[in-house]
Amino acid sequence: MTLPTICLLTEAELDLDALVAQITLPTTGAVCLFTGVVRAVTTRDDPHQTTALEYEAYRPMAEAKMRQVADEIRARWPSVEGVALVQRLGRLAAGAPTTLIACSAAHRDTGVFEAARYGIDRLKEIVPVWKKEFGPNGEAWVEGSYTPTRGD
Amino acid sequence: MSNHLTVLFFATLKDRAGGRQASIDLAAGATVRDLRAALGRQFPALTPLLPSALVAVNRQYAFDDDVLPPQAEVALFPPVSGG
User: Fold this and answer.
1) Which domains does chain B have, with CATH numbers?
2) Residue A2 sits at the chain B interface (C-beta within 8 Å)
3) pLDDT in tens, A56-110
4) Would you list the domain boundaries of chain A?
5) For the domain bounded by A5-137, which CATH number is listed?
């Protein structure tokens, strides 16, 4: 059986249930799902308010890098069955899910939590997507902090 | 022989360059470092962003010593901030 791998950039609203269903196999007993959300109120570090985030991507490279992240997950956690990496694009209002990272496996103690965590961390490092933040004081691009090296 | 390249810009680099893409002619054998310098001459507004800009060549991250292959798809952008 081919293991499902979903790597998707989409303007459409994320259907978390449908994505989980797509990586649920007859042998699956555990799915770990992470979703990022547009945070309206930030209290940590630099407290501020956010009304919306607008995402853009270098789509062909982003798709290739999402596949690379999925391959890295499978190499590290061979017990993982299905992998879904989804990034929503366009203007997203506070409270909206922006991204989904989900990994499925037969059992919960096989690394699915760590695999999903790795997926979101790597997405934020190497997948070429950027967001512009809108708030009461105007708009500004959010800049990442990771500088890729060879092999990324 | 020259290498005629199309360079794609994203996020802050797109705003500063005033467009999504540009054409640039470099000598055959030119490197990513040469590309940064040439873009600074062609788009002075990009200069402050060029040292920290990431460069992708044919959809893979590239580094200053890398030689640009002919007809490569080149992109410049800030550190990514998806998720």
Assistant:
1) 2-77 (3.10.20.30)
2) no
3) 999 999 999 999 999 999 999 999 999 999 999 999 999 999 999 999 999 999 9
4) 5-137
5) 3.90.1170.40
Which pLDDT does position A1 carry in this prediction? Answer: 64
Interface test with B, best of A143, A145, A149 (most B CBs within 10 A): A143
Q: List all residues 6 or more positions away from A100 whose beta carbon is below 8 Å from its beta carbon.
A: A14, A16, A19, A33, A34, A35, A84, A85, A86
Q: How far apart are CA B33 and CA B50, in angstroms?
A: 10
Sheet holding A129-135, edge to edge: A90-93, A52-57, A129-135, A138-142
* pTM greater than 0.90: yes
Give the ipTM of the model, two decimals please. Answer: 0.96
Look at A152 and B56 and tell me if their CB atoms are within 8 Å. no
- Which residue matches tokens 């299905």? A82
Q: What residues are paired with A101 via a beta bridge?
A: A34, A85
